[in-house]
Amino acid sequence: MTGPDRGYRSGMPLTRTLDDSTVVITGASSGIGTATAYALARRGTAVVLAARSEPALRQVAQRCRELGGRALAVPTDVTDLESVQQLADRAVGEFGRIDAWVNNAAVSAVGLFDEIPVAEFRRVLEVNLLGTVHGIKAALPYLGAAGGGVLINNASVLAEVAMPYQSAYNAAKHGIRGLADTVRQELRVTGRGQISVCTVLPATIDTPFFRHAANHSGRELVPPPPVYPPEVVAETIVRLLRRPRREAYAGGAARLIGLQWRLAPALVERTLGWYLHRTQFGPGARLDSTGNVFHADGQASRSGGWHGRRRQLVRMTAAFGLAAAGTAVGTMAMNRRSRSDR
Ligand SMILES: NC(=O)c1ccc[n+]([C@@H]2O[C@H](COP(=O)([O-])OP(=O)(O)OC[C@H]3O[C@@H](n4cnc5c(N)ncnc54)[C@H](OP(=O)(O)O)[C@@H]3O)[C@@H](O)[C@H]2O)c1
């Protein structure tokens, strides 16, 4: 197997079992963050839940306790370094240590590059990329003090490939991948290899993300199929805590797209551009909105209600069958050309 899932261990796993560990999760009030909190709570982990919306966090914390975990809700804006440092301090004040930190909070602004206001573009970078910087800065001293631990950045397959109408999000997610690789190198060369750094690259996931995004497209946003449940990412994160890797895809489509991209980037860039231009919008019209980019939505919800649309799945499968065939033909053509050039 090639690429992120090749299995190269990025460092040490948790120094303790999950039922004896403390894990901080940003973006825990909704979607993948909530699903991850529940997955860990079921295993008895102490979870520290961060996002802007306090009522939503409290609801998630309550459910985590019902599931058997310990939970602390800490309202946090990840764009504010002080707020993130207070989150780390509160986690240690309550549970004594931090064993792992999951940078998961994100927002998006959808529209052509020329249509996304610069203030929103900046804010997407601040939440998604700088928020991850803040999380790593706050977590590292505590992970060091605990004798090691795991840092997980939830990026996206869009950290590896491109998607039209998502320029700010793509730029931020590509940045997260480079940031993680550099921090991992630095930890190794400075004798801190007991702290692992992992990047998660999910496919499309069924969360409220597509309702939360700022929208300047004039059209209804829908998740491009196939759409996987948030538990797929939550379980990937749990596996990384036990057995860290540099990178892990979540959802088979992400693995397939990543592989195709590495084989024939120019061809797959075109095919994906065409496919996503057609599949990320529904039939309805929408007025411009800033979504949750500047303010929380406030409703705790794990799922977005899109999972399992078979018709979309069939379209996706057909499109990627075509893309796979195109990749194969393109690769054969390139090989033939390079042979005849010799
Ligand atoms: N859904 C997908 O298809 C998909 C695919 C690949 C990767 N991902 C990634 O998965 C992660 C979770 O996304 P999701 O799909 O679960 O979307 P979501 O349901 O919209 O969750 C986003 C979370 O980020 C929080 N957040 C936003 N701005 C924040 C800020 N300034 N400070 C603190 N928290 C903030 C939100 O809570 P508040 O509003 O309460 O702050 C919410 O808890 C993101 O990194 C996303 O890029 C998603």
From TrEMBL:
GO terms for cellular component: membrane. One of its GO terms (molecular function) is oxidoreductase activity. PANTHER family: DEHYDROGENASE/REDUCTASE SDR FAMILY MEMBER 7B (PTHR44196), DEHYDROGENASE_REDUCTASE SDR FAMILY MEMBER 7B (PTHR44196:SF1). Keywords: Oxidoreductase. InterPro entries: KR_dom, NAD(P)-bd_dom_sf, Sc_DH/Rdtase_CS, SDR_fam. The keyword Transit peptide does not apply. Residues 21-161 form the Ketoreductase domain. It comes from the Bacteria. Coiled coil: none annotated. This is Short-chain dehydrogenase/reductase. Transmembrane segments: none annotated. Pfam families: adh_short. Belongs to the short-chain dehydrogenases/reductases (SDR) family.
